[in-house]
Amino acid sequence: xxxxxxxxxxxxxxxxxxINAFIQHADSFAGAELALMDIAAPELAIVHQLGQRMVESxxxxxxxxxxxxxxxxxxxxxYVLTTFRQGGFPARAQDxxxxxxxxxxxxxxxxxxxxxxxxxxxxxxxxxxxxIRQFAPDAVLVNYTNPTQIVxxxxxxxxxxxxxxxxxxxxxxxxxxxxxLGFTPESFVLESVGLNHATWSxxxxxxxxxxxxxxxxxxxxxxxxxxVSARVKRQFRLAREFNRLPNSYMQYYxxxxxxxxxAQAAPRSRGQAIMDDLPGYYHHFQEQIEAEPPRLTHVxxxxxxxxxxxxxxxxxxxxxxxxxxxxxxxxxxxxxxxxERIVEVPARLEADGATPLVQPALPSDVVGLLHMLAEYQxxxxxxxxxxxxxxxxxxxxxxxxxxxxxxAESLLDExxxxxxxxxxxxxxxx
Length: 430
Fold this sequence. Notes:
about 425 residues, six-stranded parallel β-sheet, 18 helices
């Protein structure tokens, strides 16, 4: 029997790359329905048309359907892939810019910005879970919606629906490090563990040699290159300091003042830059609807997101017991973390979930911050899911980039006034 995969956020600029990845692995999804759902009707129509053309041109057995309501997309689905952005990029720009006015980083997954994003995201996730429970009770939720860690904490704490959360950041980091080294290795092996956007390497080799030694050998040349971003250079600095490779997001904690100054000095935030670029993506998609064959050269996220999401879904569908780095309940994979905490570790896919693989303990000089982050993100999930406005303040104050009740209260007062339409009423009137 053919499967159905509901894609919530199916009109996004990521979606054509996702469809392309399904096409590349169509044998594993023969006869599958990809049910695209989005509240952005014009963008959804474009992606739907393009997806149909791509499938027809490739001659594969996939069926692309369009849904403007969530329930019809989820109805009888075997898998639900979430990749939506509640509030769109205008809300992301607010997440980024408001914290900077208060002297803290504005970013979409960490700090205050990530908390704001979670406040908009979790009410939608809650409705998706309700619809899965009613219309697709055997479905597995595969979440790619940020902030991944807080979403995964909420789903696993307040629902019994099987959930796997994915993130491609480590893959993206790998590509950027290779580019910075100035040569293309024959082999690059990286296994990292920790929390989403807060991982450290436990196995890292480049052409069979210790990866940190290779990075240190090329350190002076990388630091001198004007075409290597400050973000990547900070990753080299942290690797040299801790003798293991960090996730690139660790820069926001260990180089806090630098990253805040850099963001404040930028002419526009990342969200604003994406808003400027978005019309070009959809113009390209419209052009390719008429092209023979359609060929994607301008798609958000490149191929990394589509490849990873489809690899995980393919592992679930084929029951291949393949291993991927995923965000799942810890059980006993990471020593010193509670069994129910969400961790990012290599995990073996099962029919309706994933089993995390036991990992070595991380050293105390890095694990302390991770413990603080893990407990903050649990508090954030609890406060947003079932708390009141005072709970929000306490949860945000627990963030290691905030650590201030008065600052947390000021930040929340400002964002709630701007984003009230997306938030639970108890936070707006409380």
